[in-house]
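Problem: given the chain below (553 residues), write out its structure.
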Amino acid sequence: MQDCFEKYNYWLQHAEDGEVLRSLKSMNEEDIRNAFSKDLQFGTGGLRGIMTAGTDRMNVYTVYRATEGLARYMLNNGMGSCAVTYDSRINSDVFSRLAAAALAYHGIKVYITKECMPTPYLSYITRYYGCDAGINVTASHNPSLYNGYKVYDKHGCQLTDAAAIAVTEQIEAVDMFERPLPVFEDYFGKEITYTDEQAEQEYINCVLAECLGNAEGLNVAYTPLNGAGYRITPAVLSKLGANVEVVQEQSFPDGRFPTCSYPNPEKAEALTMVMALADDKGSDVVIANDPDSDRLGVAVRDLKENGKIVQLTGNEVGILLCDYVLAKLSERNQLPARPIVVKTIVTSIMVDAVCAKYGAEIVDVLTGFKYIGDVINKLEQAGEADRYVLGFEESCGYLKGTYVRDKDGVVAAALVAECAAHYKRLGKTLCDRMRELYGEFGNYFLRTTSYRFDGAAGAELKEKLLADLRVSPIEKLGASKVVKTCDFLTQKQYDLPRSDVLRYNAQDGSQLIIRPSGTEPLIKCYVTVSGTSEQINERCGEIERQLNAMFAK
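Solution.
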């Protein structure tokens, strides 16, 4: 087995791409160890990594290797077509065109977008063109140094575990320097064609068809965070009747993200400029998409807090949408028999109480929207797709409708706008409605804390810390005794795939879920507590200090 320096020298001898060669020649010993210590792992979330040379990095050779492996998998399984799009990141257009050419080399038909488009649009066009697979070059909300590569199945759903393992086996057999990199122009107009404007319009029509009202009279401050939602989301909001103001500095695609180093709409820092715009324009609601426009961040002007703009959590937005959609469908007698709401296991349990009010069944799945998409697939196969009402995860991902199989920040933006407009006409804000829901169902609070482990040494430490937890389980959450533990690697209680997730439930009702991120070098911790404001602050503080002692190394 080659060590990292042997791999480095092999690349130095064989790489022909100018950008990769410049990166190789600039590396010191630590850079080489970090870039070549292992191969960039392909999983159900595809690839994601820093853009430099190296086997554990995103570059033209790792993208080629992944696509060559995917092509072999497709040919072995009688698949002959693929949809491709990309986000606004540096090199996303380069990587997507390379992927298209690598597929076309094998005679696979490729439909590729002319420009960056939202992630849900990739899911849509995979289905629209009847493709066997889809590729999206995106690193979602990661910092600008990162890029990524996701693969979708014929349903427009990210690959589930078994398919990802099969593709990985093919990728591992590929020598990335076995032939010169294929050239997009050699295949364009033959195996490769651009998607058409009709597909985009049909997607927008599907989004609008999921709306249950309008957003007339609502003033929205919006930012795409220099991402792929820059055209479509404002257009949809305007069609609903909203008055939309866009942050000009963030209104165009720019993979450098010059005004926001971490373009994650979950984080308050990412909303700084759009919240300032909302203050300046007197907007009712702040709406933000991440760079690939599958997530949604929301903040609301709270009239009971002197007009201060307050950011809502991903859970609060999901709870508000769940309540609004179920209520609206019920009022219209359009709620299906045995309705289903799908959520991830780390999402607020308050949703269960909201759903119980309307007789809706909750389906819990592992973290990752592909599992929500898979539930829709199974319902569709059983002829029961109409039972699906809403799916969401606490990390700001939402989907109403079955026209795609991934979270959709465009339809989420539309639903939030019409929901806010509905309550504005009643003299309320979304903050007012959230307070009403807390009063009705209980005061739940969920806080997510992440701990970062960069580089090869960080990856080893992260694995050790998680392994240690299985040897020495947590016995208390703060001051309360743990009464139930679930290890999702070994559990048999739920019909779910094995997953590196640990859940602890304490006597006072507190809950802690710990899992490694699938897309970033993080350990993520989800703390749920309930009670009075004083009890919530006390319990959260105790658990946070406990987590810092465990993971803040």
